[in-house]
Amino acid sequence: MKKMLIIGLVWPEPTSSAAGTRMIQLIQLFQSENYHITFASAASKSEFSYPLGDLGVEEVEIQLNDERFNAFIKELNPEVVLFDRYMVEEQYSWRVSAECPNAVKVLDTEDLHFLRYARQEAVKKGVAFSNQMLYSDHAKREIASILRCDVSLMISREEMDMLMQQFNINPALLYYVPFLEEPIDQEKIESWKSFDERAHFMFIGNFIHEPNWNCVQHLKKVIWPVLRQKLPKAELHIYGAYASQKVEQLHNPKERFFIKGRAIDAQRTMEQYKVLLAPIQFGAGAKGKFVDAMQSGTPNVTTVVGAEAMQCGLAWNGFVASDDEEFIAQAITLYQNEEVWNFAQHNGIALLNHNYAKQNFQKDFIEYFNAITSYLEVHRQQNFMGQILQHHYNQGTKYMSLWIEQKNKKSSE
């Protein structure tokens, strides 16, 4: 049995975020190819951390800047190491290369963080986003991490195109792996609540993720004041993990604006509602809330940024609005017009089954991945710039980390 080490930024929480769901999907994908998986993280677990042991995954707690990691990975000697986001690669890649130079290094990007940060900065400054904003220190760090790895898993074709066209990244270093979902079949469709059995609007999103907090603020200040006047019996229910006090303070029953907190089962929660509202102002990657909406037969209204990378030429599961006025009008139409609502639901079924059904992607990815593992030396020679970056970055990071190690030892004496 082949061995794979996943180093997590956090312990996966599928009930808290789409990132947690994606990690479980990746674990199951590699397990189907006979990999024994060890998951290690320096983060603290929470009560919502997924019980990886139930999947047969070995769990290991590690520390940052700790020489014991070298001994741990040398003994484990995995064929594959997957880094959960570029910040993890920065911390551990040099140690992996030192002890297991022949291990295939995989980066799961989740989304391009530098793209999200650039869009966020544009919104905060009240200026139009331009590609010139992408050339930041965040971009330098993240792209360097991509170059140091043998392959980076991308969840957005648009982001892949941007990396290849704007930053000249070798396509052989990138591979598109979307959310890997069970297709929607007739039995599932028949289990959904009908238009008349549903009521109210909803939003869902992890509040640690800044785009979700911004989205709720926009709903509260801009969208809902108009919608609640137009639809006097409708309510807006806000769900999300890790709601802080500033989120809780938005709860206002008189305005029919309710903060509901964590949804333990996102899809079961969604299927009670008529429409998902997601006026996303900035972000990147694919949005798990829309996959859950499709899986629960819940149409939505979002923005161009919200739907980015998810349509792939197909009709949306609702409407994509270009401004607030259009967003509000489309939300009213979906909420009141059963025929339009049913058509939107039908679009969601087609979109998910084409763009996210796991059987459409797993076989091709595994063939590609096996080819890399079989011809790793040749693959790396074609990415010589990555080897140069790895050499210099490893040296700098190594000595900084060793300095921190010594400092920590002295502090504990």
Task: Please tell me about this protein's structure.
It is a single chain. By secondary structure, this protein is of the alpha/beta class. It has two domains: 2-180 and 361-412, Glycogen Phosphorylase B (Rossmann fold); 186-357, Rossmann fold (3-Layer(aba) Sandwich), CATH 3.40.50. The protein contains 17 helices and 13 strands. The chain has helices spanning 18-31, 68-76, 86-99, 113-125, 137-148, 157-166, 186-191, 210-230, 245-248, 266-270, 288-295, 304-307, 324-336, 338-355, 362-374, 376-381, 384-412; strands at residues 2-8, 35-41, 58-61, 80-84, 104-108, 151-154, 174-176, 201-204, 236-239, 257-261, 275-278, 300-303, 318-321. It has a seven-stranded parallel sheet, with helices on both faces. It has a six-stranded parallel sheet with strand order 10-9-8-11-12-13, sandwiched between helices. Helix 9 links the parallel strand 9 (236-239) and strand 10 (257-261). Helix 3 crosses helix 17 (384-412) and helix 11 (288-295) packs across helix 14 (338-355). It is globular, with a radius of gyration of 22 Å. The model has no long low-confidence stretch (mean pLDDT 93).
Structural class estimated from helices and strands: alpha/beta
Order of helices and strands: EHEEHEHEHHEHEHEHEHEHEHEHEHHHHH
Radius of gyration, Cα only, in angstroms? 22 Å
The biggest beta sheet, please? 7 strands, parallel
List segments where confidence is low: pLDDT < 50 over at least 5 consecutive residues.
none
What fraction of residues sit in β-strands? 5-15%
CATH superfamily of the largest domain: Glycogen Phosphorylase B
Q: Return the domain count.
A: 2
The helix fraction, in percent, is 40-55%
Shape: globular
Stated plainly, the CATH topology of the largest domain is called Rossmann fold
Total number of strands: 13
So what's the CATH class of the largest domain? Alpha Beta
Q: What is the tally of helical segments?
A: 17
How much is the average pLDDT? Answer: 93
Widest sheet, order of strands: 3-2-1-4-5-6-7
Terminus-to-terminus distance: 42 Å
The CATH level-2 architecture of the largest domain is identified as 3-Layer(aba) Sandwich
